[in-house]
Design goal:
Elements: H1 2-10, H2 16-20, H3 24-40, E1 50-53, E2 56-60, E3 70-72, H4 78-88, E4 90-96, H5 98-109, E5 113-115, E6 120-122, H6 125-132, E7 141-143, H7 154-163, H8 166-176, E8 181-189, H9 196-202, E9 217-222, E10 233-236, H10 245-249, H11 256-262, E11 268-271, E12 277-281, E13 287-289, E14 297-304
This protein binds fe (ii) ion.
Length: 305
């Protein structure tokens, strides 16, 4: 019994962050405390080390890259983007530069693909597809960041530089107060015959909102053309600020038909775009990924927090 009780409190679902970070007011308070902290602390301009863990590239105390990797497609200024992000929880209209896209694709073509759950490493996506064929436990996601090696590959170096792009870092800094850490994931989402439960354990294909921390924002880039049949992301506009009490106190996952009764139809936004297309999202809004049906998706996810 004592053991059971102990495990109950050790359950990550009951961590302070998990309980309280879902409330907008507490996230806003956290933002202003970060700004104050930054103002009064001595500025340490030395960038933190780059690390890898759980197929994720991590950078602490990021400093902006010298080169530009991202372009803003619209005539929005950074301030306009921030306003839109605060209002909608989403800003669409980023693009990786052509040069960045070409380099990323070239490096990812020669990259090992890793699936930890099946303990498999593949040389190519064709090899993954072969493995997945008639397999009841397919690799629905394979990752390109190799955390089994301490050394940082050219691909990983480029991903780190993109994540520290001046435009992205400046928007994230302004949105959050300031950015302490960046986590980057680069992965293929495959077309395969997976039962929904198996895929859902690897990829968030049901509507949910994230509760990683008191402040976080994501930038996504597609490296393949994406629509609802090829792995596009979907978000409920404005739901980072507006949730039912039931949404806040229960699971972060929600039933789609129930969400459709509460939020206006036009707020369900499938983010479609060609290779290189990107967007910024406060993923405390409800969102999900569409499982690819026609074409696989290669996507870069960068979390600032
Ligand atoms: Fe999520």
């Amino acid at each position: 019994m004592i053991n059971k009780k102990f495990n109950f409190f050790k359950n990550p679902n009951f961590r302070i962050v998990y309980i309280f970070a879902r409330f907008k007011i507490l996230r806003t308070l956290n933002k202003y405390s970060r700004i104050l902290l930054e103002k009064f602390s001595k500025k340490d301009l030395v960038m933190g080390q780059i690390r890898k863990k759980n197929l994720i590239l991590m950078r602490n105390k990021p400093v902006a890259s010298e080169e530009n990797y991202v372009e803003i497609q619209t005539d929005y200024s950074k301030e306009d983007i921030l306003k839109k992000l605060k209002k909608d929880g989403l800003y669409e209209g980023l693009n990786l530069t052509k040069k960045t896209c070409i380099s990323l694709k070239k490096l990812s073509d020669n990259c090992k693909l890793i699936h930890k759950r099946n303990n498999k490493v593949f040389k190519s996506l064709d090899e993954v597809n072969l493995f997945n064929n008639n397999n009841s436990k397919p690799c629905t996601i394979v990752d390109l960041i190799d955390d089994s090696k301490e050394s940082i590959s050219d691909l990983e170096k480029l991903l780190d530089q993109i994540s520290r792009d001046e435009v992205l870092l400046s928007i994230a800094n302004n949105y959050l107060g300031f950015v302490k850490n960046i986590n980057t994931r680069f992965a293929w989402s495959t077309v395969c015959n997976s039962d929904i439960k198996w895929r859902a354990e690897e990829q968030t294909i049901d509507f949910h909102y994230d509760i990683h921390d008191f402040g976080f924002v994501y930038v996504f880039f597609y490296l393949t053309d994406c629509d609802e049949l090829s792995g596009a992301h979907e978000v409920i506009i404005g739901s980072h600020k507006k949730k039912k009490l039931k949404h806040l106190i229960n699971s972060a996952k929600s039933n789609e038909s129930e969400l459709k009764k509460y939020y206006d139809k036009e707020n369900f936004k499938i983010v479609k775009g060609n290779s290189g297309y990107g967007f910024i999202e406060d993923t405390s809004a409800f969102h999900k990924a569409h499982a690819p049906i026609k074409k696989p998706r290669l996507a870069l996810q960068i979390r600032y927090y």
